[in-house]
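Ops channel
N.P.: pipeline sanity check, posting one input/output pair.
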């Protein structure tokens, strides 16, 4: 498929500077794009490369009005790129039906236009919505439900009684509904707490490869609408994550914690159990969260601090050896002064 640059501009509500008749047939990165492709510049630091790219056109912000390349000027270059990528990306494959090497329980309720690959297992009383795709090795335990247009990539495991919403994407190796890590001491032994709750994943959630979301001990573990979870994340029993939050790789969230709406937990953040993080909070990479966090603020560090306090604290770290040396010197001088004063006080 080919589109003239002026046609793309009309479609995304942008303005062309240069040749609007140039034809675009695809999208490429600024380093690798070739003639016939469009690329984008999202940050001012990449403007120096604007005239180096081989792309036929470049998506830029409206502040940029001069360049040797054809420009598509828009309010938000990254969002515009997503729209154009969608235009040039092939649509979903046609439904392939149910492969004879899949095992589907006779009591399962199946929607229309399914794509179920070999070695898929769908248990008793499951409900599979319209246009769902289950790739090889997917396991869906009994009494589970998967909403329409959802995609489960190879080797996803959905334990019994889990509820998956519409347009959910679960990448390879995801485990939904394994037992939460719950034990109490019985003398020297560890007595297991039965995990009899469920996992509920609402619509438009995406979960990255090898992430695990545990079932609740009682009640539900809930991932609300629009949440995006990266690879290698652990979400424990009875956790609740609010709408549109972003959970980045290697985050660990302990049991019964409540994460608000539109929260960002950066890579390797650790969250202890039974705490609450307010809406719109942002927690920096490798931070440890041992207590509740207020909404609408940024946090960093372990234990976590408000971001500006953390910056002030961390600026002191390199000076600690010098400060220690100074304090030891002051301590030494004070001892000498005390030694000089002490004999005079005895004379009195």
């Amino acid at each position: 498929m080919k589109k003239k640059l002026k046609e793309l501009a009309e479609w995304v509500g942008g303005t062309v500077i240069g040749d609007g008749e140039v034809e675009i047939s695809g999208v490429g990165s600024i380093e690798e794009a070739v003639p016939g492709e469009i690329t984008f510049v999202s940050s001012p630091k990449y403007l120096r490369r604007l005239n180096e790219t081989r792309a036929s056109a470049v998506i830029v912000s409206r502040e940029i009005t001069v360049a040797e390349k054809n420009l598509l000027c828009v309010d938000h270059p990254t969002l515009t790129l997503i729209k154009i990528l969608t235009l040039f990306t092939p649509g979903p494959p046609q439904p392939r039906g149910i492969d004879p090497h899949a095992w589907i329980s006779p009591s399962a309720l199946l929607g229309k236009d399914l794509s179920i690959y070999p070695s898929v297992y769908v248990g008793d009383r499951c409900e599979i919505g319209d246009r769902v795709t289950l790739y090889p090795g997917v396991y869906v335990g009994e009494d589970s439900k998967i909403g329409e247009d959802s995609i489960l990539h190879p080797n996803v495991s959905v334990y019994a009684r889990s509820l998956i919403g519409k347009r959910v994407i679960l990448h390879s190796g995801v485990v939904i509904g394994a037992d939460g890590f719950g034990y109490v001491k019985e003398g020297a032994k560890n007595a297991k707490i039965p995990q009899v709750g469920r996992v509920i994943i609402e619509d438009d959630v995406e979960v990255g490869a090898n992430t695990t979301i545990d079932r609740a001990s009682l009640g539900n573990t809930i991932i609300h609408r629009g949440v995006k979870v990266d690879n290698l994340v652990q979400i424990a029993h009875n956790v609740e994550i609010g709408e549109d939050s972003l959970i980045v790789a290697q985050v660990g969230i302990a049991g019964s914690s409540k994460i608000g709406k539109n929260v960002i937990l950066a890579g390797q953040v650790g969250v202890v159990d039974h705490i609450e993080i307010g809406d719109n909070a942002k927690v920096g990479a490798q931070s440890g969260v041992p207590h509740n966090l207020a909404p609408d603020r940024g946090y960093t560090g372990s234990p976590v601090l408000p971001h500006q306090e953390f910056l002030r604290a961390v600026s002191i770290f390199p000076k600690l050896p010098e400060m220690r040396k100074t304090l030891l010197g002051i301590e030494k001088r004070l001892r000498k002064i005390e030694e000089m004063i002490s004999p005079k006080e005895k004379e009195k």
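N.P.: looks fine end to end. The two ends are 103 Å apart (CA to CA).
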